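Researcher: We are triaging several targets before committing to wet-lab work. For this one, the compound of interest is fe (ii) ion. I'm pasting the protein sequence and the ligand SMILES. What I need is the predicted three-dimensional arrangement of the protein with the ligand bound, expressed as structure tokens, so it can go straight into our comparison scripts without reformatting.
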Amino acid sequence: MAPQSLSSSAATLTDDSDRGPLFNSKINDAAVPSPPGLGQHPRSFAQLAQTLRDRLSESGEAAFDLQWISEVLGHYPAHDPAEWKQYVFLEDGKYTRNLVESVEGCYALMVLCWAGNAASPIHDHPSSHCVVKVLEGELIEERYEWPEGAQPGSINNTHTTDSGAPPGTPKSEPMKLVDTSKLLPGRVAYIHDSICLHRLRNPHPTTPAVTLHLYVPPYHTCRTFVEATGEARAQRRCAFWSRMGVRNKVGEM
Ligand SMILES: N[C@@H](CS(=O)O)C(=O)O
Ligand SMILES: [Fe+2]
């Protein structure tokens, strides 16, 4: 199956400015040994994309192997911003989702660009494995427990709130933060709905951050949550800011 763009629609962000970020990555040309069975580690962004395509474009989730993917992403040196610069679109106060390639039902590879202080809302990743590598800058990941009654499969639970709301109404209470970690360049992180919810934020007020996200399989809608109450907002489409290096037209999702 050939890679194709997602026909996904709106979620984050907006506006039309294309501000080129400045990067200061140091080149690291140290030889990277390959673990047994892994094969050659990708040495460039193009090789990385090819390696993922070869493995995931036919069978997607059936071929998902977290250890293998972590090693492949972890060893990609990411030393040359020129390799992914075409996917970098920064927008004040926001994060932008920029599609590199995807195969429907199998995987999506994207570059996310985080302006200073930009953050994602607390969200889920419906039926998708999510692997993230920081390419540039620094992010904070905050992980949250699922609010009572909101986890997939527990939609019909019969919990009654203290306020006397109808059965099935989730309790309104602050979401429980279970972990906070700093994601630095080179770091690979993994999340799945069976683990918890999360959000990412760029703690720096002015320095942008860039992350590489692999979703297996891709998802097109997600839920976001209100930290203070645990309320799940309505599902919404996840939009791309650009596809294959080309900025979406106004109104295009
Ligand atoms: N999962 C989020 C980005 S992140 O905050 O993990 C997204 O696809 O927009
Ligand atoms: Fe996420």
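Researcher: Any quick observations?
Model: The longest helix spans residues 45-56.
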